[in-house]
Amino acid sequence: MTIVSLAFKKPVKIALRNPVKILVIFGNSENIDLKPDEELLAKLEKRGARITPLTQPTRRELRYRLSEQRWDLLFFAGHSYSEKEGESGFIQLKEDDSISLKELESDLSQAVRNGLKLAIFNSCDGLEIARNLANFRIPYVIFMREPVPDRVAQRFLEYFLFRFSSGESLDLSVRYARQRLQDEEREHQLPCASWLPAIYQNPTAPTLKWLPPTPRIAVGVAIAFLVSIIPLSLIIYKRIHPSIPHRISMGEEILVKENVTSEKKKGVKAFEEKDFARAASEFQASLQKQRNDPETLIYLNNARNGDKSSYKIIVSVPIGSNLDVAQEILRGVAQAQNEIDRKGGINGKPLQVAIANDENNPDLAIQLANTFIEDPQTLAVVGHNSSDASVAAAPVYNRGGLVMITPTSFSDKLSSSGDYIFRMVPTIRFLTDTLSDYIVHTAHKTKIAVCSSRAAVDNESFRNQFINSFQAEGKQYINVKCDFDDPQYNPEEKILEIVSSGADSLLLAPHVDRIGKAVEMAQANQGRLTLFGSPTLYTYKTLKEGQQAVNGIALVAPWHPDTLPYNAPFRKQARQLWGGEVNWRSAQAYDATMAITAALQQSQTREGLKNTLTDRTFSVEGVTGTIKFLPSGDRQFIPGSGLIAKVKPNPKTSGYKFVLLPR
Fold first, then answer.
1. Which end of the chain is more exposed for a tag (fewer CB within 10 A), N or C?
2. 404-447 residue pLDDT tens
């Protein structure tokens, strides 16, 4: 059955291009088996599709993905419903979170402008959902007219996708799938099953067909021709993604634009000209003027290595959106590379490090990851920083078979997200349990409110886990909505609301790019509430911008330099290189690089590296503790891995520092 939309307008784009890009949204799956859907959709990759799955996404993640990237097909499986006689359709993202299609109107309309051609909704109350989607001028919508048994939805999807991805037109593919269901109605006792699937279409839209993928031999010949006329080093990053090259550098470009010395500029020019000796000399001179510059130290070691046979990794950091955090991660990687190369490298080969600027932007992270996997010389990636970026890029690394070790992403969505995905930090529960225990039993607070970035996957996870830990102690969570991403957010008004609600304390858990807003909240507090913080706030920016307002705030962290003796080699070397102590991000990035190095000593291929890291016998002693990974990709920790640090005046300066509190 085909229903014609009256709210039609001729589509801007309709032809399917290769690869066919499909955004797959798996919503609340209570009492629904979505595994068959996943398996069916995965098979489409062999027919020229590029699948991006979102499992119970946050609203921010969903809206961002819909509007900021190009999609040909949108697929939703889960629960949906309508209210007010069909005026508004809702899809359930999670058991306790539904979003109306009206709220997604601007994002879906932008998706159509970007090229969205078909939406498939394997969910209840599909007719009203389809009407809503048609109003946003999606050319074709396939839906189920009534609540449908799992078996019917899965059989229809199987028959339709097989036919459609084989080159049959959309309408004929739906007709074929309905006929197959009709054949099964009696045999499998599925009455009226063939009547349920339907198409809602724009009558001006031409026939939609899935074109076969470009033959691989043609691509191979084209690449071979390019290689024959262009140096390989110029092809790797600049061939496929023309907007990306200036975000990646091994020394031929300056990514950190602040406080650039003339010597650094000269060094970059020499590096680009492959005059590595002169480049090394200039980078060394630049570090004499400005030693606290990890980008320059990485470029120096790359220049010293020159054209030597080496092992290459990439570190991806948010230089454009959060320079302080980016520098913290770069210090860890730079210190590790410097140490490795000074000791003779890995099995006699030096370590080369490329730097990438992803700005903590999920879309950029995906583009960069697609670029990384296409470079056969790249063996692993240290990154990304924010969980939003890491979660978004993870499917790309899995598809390309490239190890990603994130030193700083806490989101539990990374757990079991693929064989090539690893993370260095503890699971959120270990940290929230530590913080809750301190608040209740040491700070003696009983009523707490939480301000977080609700749209950020790791911050929302941290908030929810902390509330569970705090309430498990028998204490009260003050439920005042406080969202750093809310455009109406006002710190003074919010503090008054929280105080009037009876809270005696406040937990600040911002996204890493919203630290400034958390500092504003601390400044507005004026000592009325006892403040606590998530690991995100453990950064120089908090101290620099907060000053007296953040004095006394206690926060949880996965590591502190005072867990090591003052003269421990790592701390001593860090002070010599950077002129001071480093924080947990630097230590975790250092250990991530050291873990990759240890694995490379055993295997020098991408798959071999993954296999080594997941081997039960693999173990490395790092500065943050023993590095050993579980089958899920999570690092093996014991409960109580979190530490409490408190902001106190620094007796050696006029500023403040993070002081480790005794357990």
1. C
2. 999 999 888 888 789 999 999 988 888 999 999 999 999 999 99
Contact (Cβ atoms closer than 8 angstroms) between residue 311 and residue 527: no
Decide: residue 96, CB within 10 A, 0-12 exposed, 13-18 middle, 19+ buried.
Answer: exposed
Share of the chain above pLDDT 90, in %: 55
pLDDT reported for residue 8: 46
Helical packing angle, 323-342 and 294-305, nearest 10°: 30
Is residue 193 a contact partner of residue 144, using CB atoms and an 8 Å limit? no
Looking at the DSSP assignment, which residues form a beta bridge with residue 448?
477, 505
CA distance 643 to 502: 28
Q: Cα 293 from chain centroid?
A: 26
Beta bridge partners of 317: 357
Q: What share of the chain in percent tops pLDDT 70?
A: 87
Q: Specify whether the CB–CB gap between 424 and 584 falls below 8 A.
A: no
CB count in 10 Å sphere of residue 651: 6
The two three-digit tokens of residue 407, written as one number: 């030193």
Find the radius of gyration of the CA atoms of the chain: 27
Residue 11 scores a pLDDT above 90: no
Phi/psi for 456 (5° steps) reads: -90, 130
- Could you give the CA distance from residue 431 to residue 534 in angstroms, rounded to a whole number? 9
pLDDT of residue 126: 65
Pairing verdict, β 140-144 and 118-122: parallel
Structure tokens at 49: 């599709």
**What is the side-by-side strand order in the sheet with 248-249?**
248-249, 351-357, 311-317, 378-382, 403-406, 421-423
Arithmetic mean of pLDDT, 157-162: 83
Q: Give, in order, the Cα–Cα distances in Å from 564 to each of 295, 371, 623.
A: 26, 38, 8
For the beta carbon of residue 330, count every other beta carbon within 10 angstroms: 27
* Comparison of pLDDT for 593 and 241, the residue scoring more: 593
Pair 171, 197: CB distance under 8 Å: no
Residue 279 has pLDDT above 90, yes or no: yes
Task: Render 126-188 in DSSP notation, one character per residue.
Answer: HHHHHHHHHHTT-SEEEEESS---HHHHHHHHHHHHHHHTTT-BHHHHHHHHHHHHHHHHHHT
CA 430 – CA 642 distance, rounded (Å): 6
3-class secondary structure for 585-635?
A: HHHHHHHHHHHHHHHHCCCCCHHHHHHHHHCCCCCEEECCEEECECCCCCE
pLDDT grade for 91, boundaries at 50, 70 and 90? confident
Q: Which residue segments constitute the domains of the chain, with CATH numbers given? A: 2-201 (3.40.50.1460), 244-423 (3.40.50.2300), 428-557+644-660 (3.40.50.2300)
Is the pLDDT assigned to residue 455 strictly greater than 90? no
Q: At what angle do helices 294-305 and 276-289 cross, to 10 degrees?
A: 160
Q: Are 377 and 354 in contact (CB under 8 A)?
A: no
**CA-to-CA distance for 159 and 272, rounded, in angstroms?**
54
The encoded tokens of residue 243 equal 């907007």
Q: Taking all residues of the chain, what is their mean pLDDT, rounded to a whole number?
A: 86
Q: pLDDT: is 492 or 132 the higher one?
A: 492
Residue type, position 563, single letter: T
SS3 content of the chain, % helix, strand, coil (to 5): 45, 20, 35
Rounded-to-integer distance, Cα 538 and Cα 643, Å = 12
Strands 643-649 and 656-660: antiparallel
Query: 15 is written with which tokens?
Result: 């032809």
Task: Report the range of poorest mean pLDDT among 12-21, 39-48, 133-142.
Answer: 12-21
Say if CB 316 and CB 373 are below 8 A apart: no
Q: 407: cis peptide before it, omega within 30°?
A: no
Q: How many whole angstroms separate alpha carbon 298 and alpha carbon 333?
A: 8
Instruction: Give the strand order in the sheet containing 80-83.
Output: 80-83, 88-94, 97-100
